[in-house]
Input
Amino acid sequence: MMLPNGEIKISKMTPDDLRHLIETGEGTYLEFKKTIPSLKKISREIAAFANTGGGTLLIGVDDNGQITGINSYFEEEYELYKAVNEYCIPPVPINVEMVHAGSNDVMLVRIAEADKKPVFIKNSQKRLVFIRENDESVLASDEFAEILKNRTQRSGVTFEYSENEQMLFRYLNEYGEITVNKYSQLINVTTYRASQILINLVSAGVLDLFRKKKIEYYTFANATR
Output
């Protein structure tokens, strides 16, 4: 279990450094929070960073980049650690520091990229996986969660170059991208079977998965989109 050490760790970041960081704006690796929302919501943000490339949470900064400050360091710190312990599977290591910014203090929370992915979030029906997409933490599809798992837990992934794969490659050569539903229709199999073929090809480095208008597409790895 991750626990706070009961001490305030003062960051080496200066007020000017903090303002420069804020000026870069929210994005894949940076998120502002005026206060800590519910434990479940903040755990989703933390897990999303861990499942992507790591990142930083600034607590005490509103969405417009205005420094509002925190009310109580220890209360906020307690909520953060409670969130990662109660909702994140496995618990996500976090590094919490405080930055003095004039009359206000801001919490700097650094989250490293997870060594083993995905980090799940507890939910009433099934565990969920969140990832960073631009400046948002979004729910990942089952396919994307499986790809995260394969990338960190499997090595030497191979695929069979059967008629199904040949039909896929011919389609991609002509159209550039494909969805699970379209592929299942193309080779006349269930969407589950189609997704497993596509997932394996992504894990083998042959394909890439990307989202466009909230729809997931598969394309050749390193293809220009």
